Amino acid sequence: QVHLTESGGGLVQAGGSLRLSCATSVRTFSRYAMGWFRQAPGKEREFVAAISGTGGSTYYKDSVKARFTIFGDNAKNTVYLHMNSLKPEDTAVYYCAAGPTTAQAMGAGFGADYWGRGTLVTVSS
After folding, report:
1. pLDDT < 50 positions in the chain
2. In angstroms, rounded to a whole number, what is the distance separating the alpha carbons of residues 121 and 9?
3. What gap in Å lies between CA 17 and CA 33, rounded to an integer?
4. Burial class, 24, CB count within 10 angstroms (exposed 0-12 / middle 13-18 / buried 19+)
């Protein structure tokens, strides 16, 4: 079973930055895409960013493309989401996901078979 644990959430002011971490038990890195989703209060969970198992391909939600960066460290079994220029509308619980798929497929809602419990990001005005 794949286990995912998010960390790094917190309270920041608009314009600030945060780096989220997802520690994973995934060992076959080339076969698993990793991604981040988020869910704001009263809204559906939405895709944010994903990276291929090899790290050679990334895919982002349009509204975060210029501000967020997803990257991984295979040696540490960890994937990160660095978030710059945070806005109040970025406030949400952020979830890490993994699956034997591609970054693009995960962005389309396919192949995210494993999920973490989430970490809360709150951006104040």
Report:
1. none
2. 5
3. 24
4. buried
